[in-house]
Amino acid sequence: MALLQVEGLKKVYADGTVGLSGIDFEVKAGEFIAVIGPSGAGKSTLLRCLNQMVEPTGGSIVFQGAQTIGSGRRKLRNIRREMSMIFQGFNLFERVSVLTNVLHGRLGYMSSWRGALGLFLKDDVAEARRLLERVGLREQMHKRADELSGGQQQRVGIARALAQKPKLILADEPIASLDPAASETVMSSLHRFCSEDGIACLCNLHQVDMAKKYASRIIGIHKGQKVFDGTPDELTDEMIRLIYNQKPAEAQELAETDMARKETA
Ligand SMILES: Nc1ncnc2c1ncn2[C@@H]1O[C@H](COP(=O)(O)OP(=O)(O)OP(=O)(O)O)[C@@H](O)[C@H]1O
């Protein structure tokens, strides 16, 4: 059984803008998938619909065998703790310590009053320290988050995501604000930890070279539609040109021809 099954996923925003116009795909446990496409294609909308930070307007999302659309608050909280998110702008609490930011990854497992008072369990604190060591930030754990560089802050974001013990990480352009060296560190850390812990990842990326380097599968989106779904090798230069050069119909046609060729081979 797939970890995640998405069928006919749609999002039309209140002002009538179509974010997603019916997307289908599956994610297997432990798969590392890059999502690419031009600006405004619907990549963020897709990730945010999956954890329902953005409410889908149609379709179905089955996560670990259960339909998530229409879930009540309690069920949604349980779904979200197993689907952690990494953000382009890190989304850390800047004035609190790095360690506390990682501990926030445990909030979904605590009663709200314990969380509000910051009464974290001893085991959770030990695990947060271990995770910070794992991402190479042991020395920084008592610093305020805003004292860290962008690349270090994103590694805190990764440690926080891992603290949730997720089955799936949704990474929304995790390296868009970073320089090339920090981007490599963040992508290689994210890839390594997902692989070591058997976590699936859907990672929105603008950098096609990074998508090809780290993902085992790439999904291409254009104008709210899936126009490519294949391996890095199958993402040819021609396909990239079609996805980014506003010719999704031609890209889809090329993908279908490739698929038919693979089936008959
Ligand atoms: N809150 C919103 N209200 C109305 N339209 C929105 C809203 N959020 C996104 N959109 C629109 O939905 C479409 C998809 O946007 P989305 O942010 O998902 O694209 P993206 O591929 O992530 O783009 P980028 O790479 O620039 O971040 C765009 O046309 C965008 O303007």
TrEMBL record:
One GO MF term, please?
Answer: ATP binding
Which SMART domains does its entry note? AAA
Q: State one Pfam family annotation.
A: ABC_tran
Q: Name one GO cellular component term.
A: membrane
Which SUPFAM superfamilies does the entry mention?
P-loop containing nucleoside triphosphate hydrolases
What keywords appear on the UniProt entry? Answer: ATP-binding, Cell membrane, Membrane, Nucleotide-binding, Phosphonate transport, Translocase, Transport
Ranges where the ABC transporter domain occurs:
4-248
| Matching Gene3D superfamilies | P-loop containing nucleotide triphosphate hydrolases
Descriptive protein name = Phosphonate ABC transporter ATP-binding protein
